[in-house]
């Protein structure tokens, strides 16, 4: 494979499009991850407030906080995606610069196969990543959302039952 004018022109035209699509997809995955995390934080705050009203909030809030951290997790899971997107962006930008520089020189003698192969691999890899990451994220969300909801519902029911038992025990015990 060697660099040619049609190939360099195609790389120069396609690389920004792939970057744009990838940027939109990355933004969507990050936005959905933060929304899910923020929803968990709101649920945690509401639960702690409910537990404070029921009494003995410190123990129950501590238990709930541990459960919340285990089931929802912070947005740290975006770090691998961020690293991957940084590599893809760097490679796409490099491919674009290589193609534009080759077109600017217009030297038919310099038909570097290494540069052409880099551009080819970058575009193919970027297509795969831009397609696979959103699909994987969607599949992961679908599989985890049911498990998370079930775990959170069970934990909320357990905490509410514990709170009811404590309130009933406090009401039954003679004032001392």
Report on the architecture of this protein:
By secondary structure, the protein is mainly alpha-helical. The chain has a domain at 5-31 and 78-170. Helices cover 87% and strands 0% of the residues. It has helices spanning 5-54, 57-71, 78-105, 113-172. α1 runs parallel beside α4. It is rod-shaped, with a radius of gyration of 27 Å. The relative contact order is 0.16. The mean pLDDT is 76. The chain crosses the membrane at residues 83-104, 116-139.
Summarize the helices and strands and which ones pair or pack:
Blueprint: H1 5-54, H2 57-71, H3 78-105, H4 113-172
Helix pairs in contact: 1-2, 1-3, 1-4, 2-4, 3-4
Which key terms come to mind for this protein?
176 residues; mainly alpha; 87% helix; 0% strand; transmembrane; coiled coil; transmembrane helix; membrane
What about the largest sheet?
Answer: none
The chain-level mean pLDDT equals 76
Based on secondary structure, the structural category is mainly alpha
Number of helices: 4
- What are the low-pLDDT stretches, counting only 5+ consecutive residues below 50? none
Tell how many strands the DSSP assignment holds.
0
- Rg: 27 Å
């Amino acid at each position: 494979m060697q660099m040619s004018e049609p190939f360099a022109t195609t790389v120069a035209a396609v690389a920004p499009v792939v970057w744009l699509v990838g940027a939109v997809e990355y933004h969507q995955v990050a936005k959905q991850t933060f929304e899910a995390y923020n929803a968990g934080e709101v649920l945690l705050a509401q639960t702690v407030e409910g537990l404070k009203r029921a009494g003995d909030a410190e123990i129950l809030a501590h238990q709930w906080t541990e459960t919340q951290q285990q089931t929802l997790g912070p947005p740290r899971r975006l770090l691998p995606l961020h690293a991957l997107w940084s590599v893809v962006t760097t490679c796409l930008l490099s491919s674009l610069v290589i193609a534009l520089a080759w077109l600017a020189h217009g030297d038919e003698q310099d038909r570097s196969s290494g540069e052409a192969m880099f551009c080819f691999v970058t575009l193919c890899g970027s297509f795969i990543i831009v397609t696979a990451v959103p699909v994987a994220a969607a599949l992961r969300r679908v599989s985890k959302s049911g498990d998370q909801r079930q775990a959170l519902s069970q934990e909320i029911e357990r905490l509410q039952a514990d709170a009811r038992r404590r309130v009933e025990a406090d009401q039954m015990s003679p004032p001392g």
